[in-house]
Design a protein that fits this description.
Blueprint: H1 12-30, E1 38-39, E2 42-43, E3 65-68, H2 72-83, E4 86-93, E5 96-100, E6 105-109, E7 121-124, H3 128-137, E8 141-148, E9 156-161, E10 167-172
């Protein structure tokens, strides 16, 4: 069988290499920057504030989170407007969009469907009631309003479904 070549696509192996390079480059643009640092040999773009990456690179720490999002536009609007995340539409592709939450990056994946009773992400918020009001306005559903966590742990929590149906928890000190 003859390899397909020519045109703008080239052969499949070359396309795969280009996609991997694009993904690494785009992931690097979402990561915190220290001057002159690299990600797997690729230069990081400048302009992102420097942070201590030691804890973020520790073995066993979260480095990338994939959130199911059959409706990528709703996911982008919801997480940008409520939590201030930065979402890159169509990067690296039309069905998988990178996001930066501020402490960990990831992607919304249009090819995945939310599951019930699965891994639960808990997001830190400052103003619990304001956040819950915003969630309702942006198409989310609050499934459990603010409640005291208990004696062992200080603070409050609440739970919601995002517009795609993912269950998310919230935590605040007050």
């Amino acid at each position: 069988m003859k390899k397909r070549t020519g045109g703008s696509g080239g052969n499949l192996a070359a396309n795969a290499d280009r996609l991997q390079l694009l993904a690494k480059t785009e992931q690097a643009s979402l990561l915190p920057q220290s001057q002159g640092s690299t990600l797997d040999g690729y230069n990081r773009p400048s302009g992102v504030k420097e942070v201590n990456m030691e804890n973020q690179r520790r073995s066993g720490s979260f480095c990338h989170i994939v959130i199911p999002a059959p409706d990528l536009g709703k996911a982008r609007s919801f997480y940008e407007n409520i939590f201030g995340w930065r979402v890159q539409a169509n990067v690296p592709g039309s069905k998988y969009w990178f996001f930066d939450s501020g402490n960990v990056g990831g992607a919304f994946d249009a090819g995945r469907k939310p599951g019930s009773r699965s891994v639960l992400l808990i997001l830190k918020v400052e103003g619990m009631q304001t956040t819950l009001d915003s969630i309702r306005q942006e198409g989310g559903t609050v499934t459990r309003d603010r409640s005291r966590i208990g004696e062992a742990v200080a603070g409050y929590d609440a739970y919601l479904l995002d517009p795609n149906g993912n269950e998310i928890g919230l935590h605040s000190d007050r």
